[in-house]
C-alpha cells in the first residue's frame, strides 16, 4: 500500500490538480486537502504517482525507493499501464 512514512504535504493529483495529503496514512486510507473552492466529488480520479507526478518525487518525500513503491502495490489498486 501507500507508505505510512508519507508526511503531510505529500502531493497527489485530484482531477489533474496537485493537492496535499493531510495527517498520517492509516491502513488503506489517506486524507487530502481539496481546498475551500473544491468542485471534486467522490469517484473522481486520483493519481498517487504517474503522469504529472513522478514516482521519484513521492519516493524522495517518503524516503522509500521508487522501485519499492511500485512493487508494493496490490491488486486492490486500480492500475493503468501505458506504453
Automatic annotation (TrEMBL):
Its EC number is 5.1.1.1. Belongs to the alanine racemase family. Its cofactor is pyridoxal 5'-phosphate. It holds the Pfam family Ala_racemase_C. GO terms for molecular function: alanine racemase activity; pyridoxal phosphate binding. Keywords: Isomerase, Pyridoxal phosphate. InterPro entries: Ala_racemase, Ala_racemase/Decarboxylase_C, Ala_racemase_C. The gene is alr. This is Alanine racemase, biosynthetic. It catalyses: L-alanine = D-alanine. It comes from Escherichia coli. The lineage of its organism: Bacteria, Pseudomonadati, Pseudomonadota, Gammaproteobacteria, Enterobacterales.
